[in-house]
Amino acid sequence: MPHYKLTYFNLRGRGEIIRYLFAYSNIKYEDHRIERADWPRIKPTIPFGKLPILEVDGVILHQSLAIARYLAKEIGLAGQTPLDQALVDAIVDTIDDFMSMFPWTEENEDVKQQKFNDLLTNTAPELLRDVDSFLGNKKWLVGKSVTWADFYWDVCSTTLLFLKPGLVDNYPKLLALKERVQALPAIAAWTEQRPKTTL
Ligand SMILES: N[C@@H](CCC(=O)N[C@@H](CS)C(=O)NCC(=O)O)C(=O)O
Predict the structure, then answer these.
(1) Coil, helix or strand at residue 35
(2) Does the annotation count 153 as an active-site position?
(3) What is the pLDDT of residue 186?
(4) Same domain, 92 and 175
(5) Sign (positive/negative) of CA torsion 146, 149, 154, 155?
(6) How far apart are the CA of 135 and the centre of ligand 1, in A?
(7) Residue 199 counted as domain residue
């Protein structure tokens, strides 16, 4: 088994999908969380200057979704067929497109608040409607078993629900999917023991 070291901030953020995959597979890894104050010093030492990164026996992987896809393939959560894998990637990217629209680091609080409100009020309903219809009456988003797309829905919706409680109330099937993911014993154990952070 390679030595895995995940470096990210002390947030769920873009690190959490990776932590879910480690938790689910029970693979040991170093969950290295850096302080914001240390980031300016560390940033120039990180290829591409962004987190998360995952070191795999010293090889540095960047881009959270590339890292997650790599781990998902290793542990059989990437989708059962090439077509299912493409569907998984597509729904993950769709959710990620939305999460990436939020101006997380905007310093002007008024501007930030206005943009967050707009996205949560006007854009989120379209995304939720589309993900809900993609899920339909299936148990999992793609295929007949859980994939990392289900994990990504849970991770991202946790943040969306923190920002706007009740956001998903009109979508009971999406809430039920979230509950199914959270009820997986390894995920339940992780969410219970993980460091508590707002984002
Ligand atoms: N698409 C990249 C985005 C990486 C990214 O923007 N990371 C942020 C934290 S979520 C970061 O490193 N910010 C610090 C900086 O840009 O200096 C990914 O998914 O990994």
Answers:
(1) coil
(2) no
(3) 98
(4) yes
(5) positive
(6) 29
(7) no
Chain segment 21-30, per-residue pLDDT in tens: 999 999 999 9
Per-residue pLDDT tens digits for 66-85: 999 999 999 999 999 999 99
Q: Are residues 71 and 149 in the same domain?
A: no
How high is the pLDDT of residue 65?
98
Q: Distances in Å between the alpha carbon of 135 and those of 48, 86, 90, 129? A: 35, 15, 13, 10
Residues with CB under 6 A from ligand 1: 13-14, 43, 50-52, 63-65
Domain boundaries, position 21:
4-76+187-193
pLDDT at position 155 is 98
Which residues of the chain are modeled with pLDDT < 50?
Answer: none
Q: Do residues 54 and 90 both lie within one domain?
A: no
Hey, how many other C-beta atoms are within 10 angstroms of the C-beta on 139?
14
Does residue 168 lie within any of the structural domains? yes
Tokens of 29: 């890894």
Residue 32 lies in a domain: yes
